[in-house]
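Suppose you are handed only these lines of text.
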Amino acid sequence: MGVTNSNVSEWLASYDKSKITIGVVASHSSLQILHGARQEGFQTLGIVVGEERKRYYSAFPGADPDEWLVLENYAQLLEKADWMRKRNVIVIPHGSLVEYLGSEKFKILEVPTFGNRGILHWESSRSRQRTWLEKGGCSLPKIIDDPHDIDGPVIVKYAGAKGGEGYFIARDYRDFRRNVNLDYEFTIQEYVLGCRYYLHFFFDPTAEDGFQVQGMGEKSGKSLGRLELLSMDRRDEANVDEFYKLGSLRDLREMSLEPSFVVTGNQPVVIRESLLPRAFQMAEGTVASSFELEENSRGMIGAFCLETIVTDDLEFRVFEISARIVAGSNPFVGGSPYSDINEPFMSTGRRISRCIKKALEKGMLETILS
Ligand code: ATP
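From them, the structure of the protein bound to adenosine-5'-triphosphate can be written out as follows.
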């Protein structure tokens, strides 16, 4: 049993609201989260395993946390919950926190966290993601159930692989057999040929202005909150991004080389403006359907990313959703071509703290925390 809404209400009741501290594990997107928290006037806490990593943050005084919590291992974070609550800490989760701590431990961490921890259940399985995204009106790459049916390029993905590790491309059954590791669970997806865009959205359920998401199902006809597009990136992936320099796939195979998809960095991009309405339609559907996934679902809260490929007939395929801040938003510490239109210097990290600040002013903190 994870943390419940009433746990969070109870903890918040004893918080000194004038001394909220933003806590984050020092990794992933922590520089912009810490920097953004400071811009919004919060105290900051960096969480780290071992003293060594702290040193690198002194290279970034604009983000260097006011205080550090040094752990021997991530599991120890659970024992420090009391300590954090005494300091009025709100934890901002990111991909590395969930990965280092493990999703089961993350669910029982007894500190208020930004966003809806319940959404992790839907995000953590490819098939549940598919249900969610299709309900929201997104098109996804086709799934090939039987490897004998492979009759064009496919990408084979292992369950739980992070950052594209171990994925491979196959053109036919023979390719598949040669590369597959049957010890692991895998999914075979149509390889979508096109350009990748990682769309960084933010959903603020406490805001009543701007682009309002319209509810579906029982929430039909209701405005659920404001949807914003903050930025967009494309990932650098080793070695697939550089493979073309070595010749054709056949040449590469002769050299016993297979493309890999390990994320090494991120680059800022913008999309054709005429694609934005469809991008918003997909994101709106994704938010609206997140409230319909189960009874009393609290839905999507805060930052999320639709990972897409745009084909040459200008269609989006969504191959994944991340239901929290993504590291692809790191190039935008100083704002993006999208967020600058609304307010300069608004990173996703800062937007999270702004959301907390506004919710505090409106007495709606519980709406955005879990
Ligand atoms: P993470 O969880 O870190 O986002 P992951 O390990 O779940 O990553 P994916 O994001 O699913 O991996 O995919 C990794 C990379 O593989 C993508 O960035 C993209 O380059 C490529 N890719 C994934 N699915 C497809 C597809 N259906 N067609 C073409 N390329 C794909």
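What can we learn from it? Residues 141, 155, 157, 161-164, 167, 189-192, 196, 235, 237, 261, 307, 309, 319-320 surround adenosine-5'-triphosphate (CB under 6 Å). The chain has 14 helices and 13 strands.
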